[in-house]
Amino acid sequence: MWSVSALGLALTGISSPVMLPGAWGMAAAATALAGLLLMTGLRRHARQSGALEVASSEVENLKALHMATIEALALAIDAKDQTSHAHIRRLQLYAGRLAADMGLPALEVEAVRTAALLHDIGKLAVPEHILSKPGPLSPEEFQKIRAHPRIGAEIIARVPFPSPVAPLILSHHERWDGKGYPAGLHGPQIPLGARLLSVVDYYDALTTDRPYHPAMAREVAIEVLQQEAGRALDPAIVERFLAQLPALEAEARALDLLPAPEAEAAVAAALARDAEDTVRARTVLEDISLAHREIYALYEIAQALGSKLGVPDTMSIISSKLTNIVPFTASALMLLDESGDTLSCRYAIGTDADLIMKTRVRLGDGLSGWVARNRRCLVNARPEADLEASGVTVPLTLKSALVCPLVIQDMFIGTLAVYHTETSFYREDHRRLLERVAEQAAAVIKNSIVFEQTQSDSLTDPLTNLPNTRFLFMHLAREIARAGRHKSQVALIIADLDGFKEVNDTLGHHIGDRALAEVARVLRSAIRPYDICARYAGDEFVVVLSACGAEDAERKRQELQQAIDAMRFEVDGRLLPLGISLGCAVFPDDGQTHETLLAVADSRMYKNKTSRKTHAISS
User: Fold this and answer.
1) pLDDT given at position 186
2) For helices 86-101 and 106-118, what crossing angle results, to 10°?
3) What band does 433 get if pLDDT is binned at 50, 70 and 90?
4) What SS3 state is found at 63?
5) Which pairs with CB-CB distance under 8 Å and at least 24 residues apart come from 58-64?
6) Among 61, 165, 205, 383, who pairs with 398 as Cys (CB 3.0-4.6 Å)?
7) CA–CA gap between residue 527 and residue 541 (Å, rounded)
8) Per-residue pLDDT averaged across 312-336, rounded?
9) Closest CA to 329 of 303, 342, 348, 343
10) Where are the alpha helices (DSSP H) in 408-468?
11) Longest Cα pair distance anywhere in the chain, in angstroms?
């Protein structure tokens, strides 16, 4: 048998046991046993330390995964709102650096950084049209916005962060002066992290484009921040933030030079296996933002379309909103005329618009005629085709056209077209979106056409197709105001048919109506295109001559009188002579108002009528 000493030595690894006498043997055995226990403990400790290191590494990996998930969620939320994905990255950078500089514990710094990422998560509960509304909010809409800090805090309260994040989200819209929301906290009552976040968010909102305001210059934003110190913002934090701002912006500028934000690139790297996947991951947020812009642009078009009644105003709205989702360098509206077989350009804007306005095509001809006949979109067609069908052979700068039919209740009314200077520019997404816009626009454009016709009818004399008295007074007011501004003159001529009552009494009113229509035609053809001739009352007409003095007005009066005297009006195979008396008045020489001018011209017209009667009797 082995002695205790030998056993101890054997256990300690000594292969040749040596017999030791008495107490020395016992001591050696004890020493060997102690060594054994120590080595066993060291080995156990080594195993435990390794396990702890592995566990610690797993915790760090899990923490990083959680943070990457949070950042990905935050970026997606931010893409839904109409702000740059760099917005929350800047907030995270600025707020985190500021919190560390102010001596907050590491866990609280992380809480601030996390709150910076998720501070607007409550906007998920705010309707998109309110988030992106370019104008002022109504009280009801503002109440919806005010709810987002509370909703965001309720969502985040369920997440067991190492340091509280929900209170920072809840209070990031509180104000130093107590006028903020949701609780109206005042000064130090507001959590320090929330005050940090407010300052950073305030500055970033001022210096970036938002739907409701353009970006401010850096110097102006700093002035505003200083003005708000002690009112909306903690003055001590504003001072510290502005002191650090150059360094913070330098770091942010360096990060912005990366091909993608760090968090986004990290998520992409975790998901990607090849370059194609990486590119796809990097455009995910752009796709979310684009989808939101599409929805909002369509909403804006639908909201604004009913606000204008005329066709040009309606098309101006459509064009201004459409460019956000379907880029173009020119756009045009073609409308079907009353004959039902010809399309004419009614509105054009952008490159080559003056040429496009000359477009007039029959159904089946050109781009618009083909779309009218088939009621289908044309994508990337040749813009020249419509001009060629109209007999215009001038080359265009435009290279690709997207043309959609306008149909309401199965009735075709025209086409809506967009053009681009790049060849084959338009894709299926553009076609889809233009079709959506055309669906909304068709009914409104139809209403605009009806409105214009009704308006024209209300300002037109149905018998002569000349402007009526209502239009005359509107036009005179404009011309007199313009002449007053430019120190120029306006001439007014009143004309009254001679012996017209006798024509009606002897030949009948139907002959009298024919005579009035023929006189109106002759008067209209004898004046310049930009002058007007209106039917005033019964057998009276008024001619308005822009930028015309007394001498020119008198020459025109004589010319009109001679034209009517020479007119050949036939009734039942015999010529009926017609005559007309006219009188002139000129602004500002004869009067400052249209009432005075009409009275002066009317008086002179009756003097002319008397003179003509006297001359007829004597001859």
Assistant:
1) 93
2) 160
3) confident
4) helix
5) none
6) 383
7) 13
8) 83
9) 348
10) 428-458
11) 176
233 DSSP 8-state letter: B
Counting every residue written for the chain, the total comes to 619
And the tokens for 365? 């001809």
The mean per-residue pLDDT over the stretch 227-252 comes to 92
**What is the mean predicted confidence (pLDDT) over 392-412?**
90
What does the angle CA 265 – CA 268 – CA 271 come to, to the nearest 5 degrees? Answer: 155
CA 59, 63, 69, 70 dihedral sign is: positive
- Average pLDDT score over residue span 353-362: 91
| Single-letter code of the amino acid located at 175 | R
Which tokens go with 49? 């330390």
C-alpha–C-alpha distance, residues 596 and 601, integer Å = 9
For residue 588, cis peptide bond before it (omega within 30 degrees of 0) = yes
Residues with Cβ within 8 Å of 9's Cβ and at least 6 positions away in sequence, in order, are 17, 18, 28, 32
| Spatial contact of 282 and 264, defined as CB atoms under 8 Å apart | yes
Contact present, 464 and 520 (Cβ < 8 Å): yes
Of 243-247, 260-264, 408-412, 578-582, the one with minimum mean pLDDT is 260-264
- State the average pLDDT over residues 242-260: 75
For 210, the token pair is 């938002």
User: Do 505 and 491 touch, CB atoms closer than 8 A?
Assistant: no
pLDDT band at 351 (very low <50, low <70, confident <90, very high): very high
> Which 3 state secondary structure label does DSSP give 171?
coil
Cα–Cα distance, 38 to 51 (Å, whole number): 20
Positive or negative, the CA dihedral 23, 29, 33, 34 is positive
pLDDT of 281 strictly over 50: no
Q: In the Cβ-directed half-sphere of 310, how many Cα atoms lie within 13 Å?
A: 7
Average pLDDT, whole number, for the chain?
Answer: 79
**429 vs 527: CA distance, rounded Å:** 52
The two tokens of residue 599 are 């009275």
Which residues make Cβ contacts (< 8 Å) with residue 330, sequence separation at least 6?
Answer: 348, 349, 350, 351, 352, 353, 356, 398, 418, 419
Contact present, 176 and 195 (Cβ < 8 Å): yes
Distant-in-sequence, close-in-space partners of 340: CB < 8 Å, separation ≥ 6: none
pLDDT at 318: 77
- How many Cβ atoms are within 10 Å of 471's Cβ, its own excluded? 18
Question: Which H, E and C letters describe 107-150, residue by residue?
Answer: HHHHHHHHHHHHCCHHHHHCCHHHHCCCCCCCHHHHHHHHCHHH
Weakest mean pLDDT among 11-20, 316-325, 386-395: 11-20
pTM to 2 decimal places: 0.43
The CA distance from 352 to 434, in Å, is 21
Q: 294 vs 121, 281, 320, 600, CA distance in Å?
A: 21, 21, 14, 61
> Which range has the worst mean pLDDT, 48-52, 370-374, 547-551?
48-52
Tens digits of per-residue pLDDT, 474-491? 999 999 999 999 899 999
Could you tell me which of 574, 575, 541 has the C-alpha nearest to residue 557? 541
What's the whole-number mean pLDDT along residues 580-586? Answer: 95
Residue of 405, 407, 394, 586 whose CA lies nearest to 489:
586
More confident residue, 34 or 238: 238
Q: Parallel, antiparallel, or unpaired: how do β-strands 342-350 and 330-336 relate? A: antiparallel
Q: Among the residues of 311-414, which ranges form H helices?
A: 311-322, 353-356, 366-374, 384-389
Structure tokens, 353? 């618009």
CA dist list (Å): 426 to 326, 514, 605: 9, 55, 64
